[in-house]
Amino acid sequence: MAKIGYLGPRTNSEKCVEIYALDRDERFPYSRIEEVFEALREGKVSHIVVPVRNSIRGYINNHLDMIREKNLVKIKEITIPISHSIGCFGEKRDLIISHPQAIMQCEYYLKEHFPNAGRMPASSTDEGARKVAERKGGIAIANRETLMYHGLAVLKEDIVRDNYSIFWVLKNGRY
């Protein structure tokens, strides 16, 4: 039985865990990517799932750096389509809150449709949607299910075409 750590809940990393994990495997969502790597280092989990490349923004260099520094071993690669949707709470649409990668992947759409909205980074798309709901205003970028979970109105689905990400399933190299 594996213990699998990932950035979550309700994220694309969680979708990869669903593809990789067996029913008997335990799943552990963490709110920050640094916590995912730390859980593996400390032995709290036996494997982690992390994104390493996106078709629009390219390699996620800080993740690759952490993989090299910690001497981790790739045991599987998973490619999944990414479907970003725009959600809001109320009419106040002055601030976009989401994971920095999601904001960058959607930048052309955001500039066209929300040119005056500020940007605020969140540790995950789920956290961004939660913050928009808590402040009762703003715009979130996440998958449709996440937006609805947090009670946000879905304004538009699949705002970026031909978007996919590559995730690696990793374990410690000392095995």
Describe the model.
The structure is a single chain. This protein is α/β, with parallel strands linked by helices. It folds into two domains: 3-81 and 165-172, D-Maltodextrin-Binding Protein, domain 2; 85-156, D-Maltodextrin-Binding Protein, domain 2 (3-Layer(aba) Sandwich), CATH 3.40.190.10. It is 33% helix and 34% strand. The chain contains seven helices and eleven strands. Strands 1, 2, 3, 4, 5 and 11 form a six-stranded mixed sheet that branches. Strand 1, helix 1 and strand 2 (26-30) form a beta-alpha-beta unit. It is elongated. The relative contact order is 0.23.
In short:
By secondary structure, this protein is an alpha/beta fold. The chain is built from seven helices and eleven strands.
Could you name the key traits of this structure?
five-stranded mixed β-sheet, 175 residues, six-stranded mixed β-sheet, 11 strands, alpha/beta
Average per-residue pLDDT, rounded, comes to 93
Give the helix/strand class: alpha/beta
Number of strands: 11
Termini Cα gap: 16 Å
Can you count the helices?
A: 7
Given as residue ranges, the uncertain stretches (5+ residues, pLDDT < 50) are none
The best one-word shape is elongated
Estimate the strand proportion.
25-35%
Helix content: 25-40%
Outline the biggest β-sheet.
Answer: 6 strands, mixed
- CATH homologous superfamily descriptor of the largest domain: Periplasmic binding protein-like II
Number of domains: 2
CATH topology label of the largest domain: D-Maltodextrin-Binding Protein, domain 2
Question: Any idea what the CATH architecture of the largest domain is?
Answer: 3-Layer(aba) Sandwich
Q: Supply Rg.
A: 16 Å
CATH top level label of the largest domain: Alpha Beta
User: What oligomeric state do the depicted chains represent?
Assistant: single chain
Series of H and E elements: EHEHEEHEEEHHEHEHEE
